[in-house]
Amino acid sequence: MIRVLIVDDDPLVRSGLTMILGGSPNLAVVAQAADGSAGLDAVAEHRPDVVLIDIRMPVMDGIEATKALVELDDPPKVIVLTTFDADDYVLRALAAGASGFLLKDTAPEAIVEAIHKVADGEPMLSPSVTNTLIQQVTTQHAPERSNAALERLSRLTEREHEVALAVGRGLSNAEIAQELFLSVPTVKAHIGRLFTKLDVENRVQIALCVHDAGLS
């Protein structure tokens, strides 16, 4: 059973998500909170596996709450929710340590799937969001970004380079494992090393690096 906490200042959103997730046999909404500060208190009390959190909230927004959550000794996975796929806060939220990013109009079954994947350690992002982010952050200083990206990728082994390119194409861990004839745990280990060698926090930033280098 995956324990879920919902943090959103809109009570209708909280109720709607609770109903959606309540219909899944493997998910349990253990608590709700109306802002990031209350969300931190709820995490301490209920110890959820996954937190669904809005970006824009009073008292403490989703970014600050995410930063605090990932610093816990046994942090929950965090999926950030928003109504805008081009939200300026998205990269900041991902850099803060969020494991997923979804639009609030995402289909119910896709939200359930995202929670399962994130709980299993596989980050989940709406493809349209990933594409928008890449377009937004690569429109300026292209030569400088390209040179820096190529230098970072040069630190990788051949296999790590292959995994990075696959992440840049949006493949999941299972898809990368199948394509490169690796086990999923081995893929996860490679991606962990990519985080360190490329000095990134998440898969989107790996994809950005690959894109900046002109390899996607």
Automatic annotation (TrEMBL):
It holds the Pfam family GerE. Residues 3-119 form the Response regulatory domain. The keyword Phosphoprotein applies. Signal peptide: none annotated. GO terms for biological process: phosphorelay signal transduction system; regulation of DNA-templated transcription. SMART domains: HTH_LUXR, REC. InterPro entries: CheY-like_superfamily, NreC/VraR/RcsB-like_REC, Sig_transdc_resp-reg_C-effctor, Sig_transdc_resp-reg_receiver, Tscrpt_reg_LuxR_C, WalR-like. GO terms for molecular function: DNA binding. The modification 4-aspartylphosphate is found at residue 54. Residues 149-214 form the HTH luxR-type domain. Keywords: DNA-binding, Phosphoprotein, Transcription, Transcription regulation. The keyword S-adenosyl-L-methionine does not apply. This is DNA-binding response regulator.
